[in-house]
Amino acid sequence: MRTNVRHIPESLISTTIAVLLTLATMILLSGCGGKSSVAMSPAGEERLSTEGRETKALDGSVVHVDQADRAPVEPFDRYAFRHFENALLQEMIGDFHGAAESYRRVLTYYPHSHEVGVYYAETLMRLGYPEKALVVLDSVRPQDEDVLYLKAGCYRAVNDVDGAKNAYLELVKLDPQQINALAFLANHYQRRNDIDSTLWAYRLLVKAGESDPRMLNQLGRMLEQTGRVDEAKEVLWMAVRATPIPHPLSVATLGELYDSRGQSDSAEMVFQLGLEASPDNILLHRELARLYFVQDSTLKALPHMRAVAELSPTDTDAARRLGIVYFSLDSLVQADSVLTALVQSGDVDARNHFYLGRIAVLQEEYERARDEFIVQSELAESSVDSWIDLGFAYRQLDAPEEESAAYMRGLEKMRDEDSAIKLLFALGTLLERTQKIDSAVTVFEEIIKHNPDEHQALNYLGYTLADNDLRLEYAHELISRAIELEPDNAAYLDSYGWVQFKRGELDDAVTYLRRAATLDNDPVILDHLGDALSATGEQQEARLWWQRALELQPDNQTLKEKLNR
Fold this sequence. Notes:
two-stranded antiparallel sheet; 2% strand; mainly alpha; Serine Threonine Protein Phosphatase 5, Tetratricopeptide repeat; 565 residues
């Protein structure tokens, strides 16, 4: 017993045959116009079409033909009908190869039948023969919507994009509301960066009643990019309102559009509107946080940053940004908690340790800061800040040897001259602080050799020489060059006044030191001004400046001795 043959109940077969008989008669009669009124059956039987008002169909029924509407009618061929009937039955039982062959035979009788041609092409497409289907469709007339739609599908099946495009264009000419055709054309033109054609297709989609918010959102973006801002806003509002719950992406795009035009109040209103409907939407929380950051409203941004981190617990970047926001708000405990949790979760990012180290510095936990900066330098060895931070921690721990070693290791890792100069500068200041003056001078001169306009190095070297009564003319030249580059820098003006003091140019020294004191209330500047005034005999005023300096540095023994003289 064959179990793989589909069983069709006899009642269904008889009913289907009756329906197919009527359907086939209608299709074949409608598809035979335009041929000769005489046709030969395979048996060679000649049959003439009626010239009167009545004619008989194959089943013997009378078909009335109005005399005024009569046209040459091709006789109905019983063999063609049998093939067509077979084709329909074969399709019903899934025998598409048999159906295709039956349709082909029908077309030998009626080669221009529109309906049979479309059926045949559809069956060929089902069988995976789009090229053959195209050959059939090219001969079908008229090239109406059904034919063009099927041709477009065939072209797409053989990856002939231009063929599909042309078929869809012809289809849209016949029916401008063909949404699938317009969607293909919009995507096609967009991929080719043909903005005007894309806009044309999108606009037709909107007119056809297509209200997909994603499509409207894309249209809005393109309108904005081409300067059609008012139209973009209108379309984006359509996108926002296209669904009962405002489309988040469209809300974000509309808000960004308002923000880019300086309408931050409208942007905030749009983002809030979206969040009222979708309070857990991460995208809108991010956009609102970004808006507040741009407005320097960090406190207003904080709840949205927190929402993003809570809604996406696996997003380490979101958590890190939250920790950084806490740090910027001096909420060190919260920042420490967030960043420490990131490290404990296995997140390997140098920024975690950078901020944890900075938190430790602010809390004066320098050993912890050192440990964090060590990890930071290992994770970001080519970052100059990693080694500067580590050196700073060692300085606070009064470990000059370790600080010097950190700078030297960092110099080996630097990839650009500017970063190397920063580390050399830090090394030079360390050498100067530890009274290794000759080595410090060598380092600063190396910096100036590579960058003659490095004004910080010019000033630092000049001041170091002047403070140690070394090469005063050279020091004067260095500091003068620094002031040319930074004429209103209080530290440089102080250095110039100090080198002039050392050179005995007291009036000039007082002039520059007074100017420096008006720019910065630094105790060193005030002390220097007091010394210069004292040297010119202005003891009372000198004591006033020393007193102000002591108020800023109450433990400065040198100042106390000057005031007690």
